[in-house]
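Thread: quick sanity check before group meeting

JM: Hey all, I'm pulling together slides for Thursday and realized we never actually wrote out the predicted structure for the chain we discussed last week. Dropping the sequence here so it's in one place. If anyone has concerns about the input, flag it before I start.
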Amino acid sequence: MSNNHLIVIIGAGMAGLIAASKLQAAGQDVLVLEKSRALGGRLATRRLQSAGFTTVFDHGAQYFTAKDARFQQLVEDWIAQGVARVWFDKSTENGHSYPTFIGAEGMTRIAKHLAQGITVRKAAKVTRLAMAEPGWQVFLESGGCLQASAIIMTAPTPQAVDILTASALDLPTEQWDALKAVTYDPCVALLMCLDGPVDLPDKAGYWQPEKGSLIGWVAENHQKGISPNGFGLTIQMSPRSSTEWFDQSDEACYECMRQAVQPYLGEAQILDWQVKRWRYALVKNAGTQYYQWFQQTPPLILAGDAFAGPRVEGAVLSGLVAAEQLLKHLNNQPAVGSGTL
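JM (edit): ok, ran it. Output follows.
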């Protein structure tokens, strides 16, 4: 075990994978625990087979932007390695524009790239933690228990609260209050397989209706360039509509969204469809710090887009800065308890 440190990271979204990559590159032993069977969190890509076609859908985050210099460098590296590419230029109200980026074969491609060489255990749901000198015990729903010298928790904050509550940790009231105050908008998405192309308003392959619409976003994944052999729409309800429809049946959600996009289908016929739901899709009130160091010894750090902002860039920077500060602590250097944005 390198330097006698095993660091457990809870959550294999972008914050967790970036933190794991940074720590492992510095010689630490890292284990990532992910409760689902997929990597990347909302960087999610799905393939559906219908009528002999394989249609590829990005059904979570549709693209990302890069404004911070550290993230820009990461994105440039991904592009150079064929992991990511530019999709379209997004215009601002003052007439400027900036590029949007996507995974080269779908958003999950980036998560899989980051996970290379890192030990990730999927379907490994953490239920509680316990201090065990000189570190932590990490209890799994499966009944297993792991030993860790330090923990970085990147799960959505309601899931983190559940774990910390079950752990009966004596944390400062202000930290508890801040964590419990974070809320999320959900997202209801429809994946629609088609037998031919459609004509969306933007030729890059997307349509974003005016605010207040039932629909928040539509993308045609063939035009987007990730589904070369199949045509398919990713249709996402707006946050308000997703909240209203989240608990409705798949059939009701499908019919509602189908009617909303019917004018754009033209002659294309629907071959198949699937409804996906994201309970924690968009942070509504992110914090002003990159991460929060909840316990100094043994180290327990919380990170993710709930701290640094509800975008891919926010999650990445949160995980990166949290890992940097943990490395300082492990190397007996002064570490900052939280990093202000």
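AS: nice. The domain at 2-37+122-183+285-330 is CATH 3.50.50.60 (FAD/NAD(P)-binding domain). The first strand starts at residue 6 and ends at 10.
JM: adding both to the slides.
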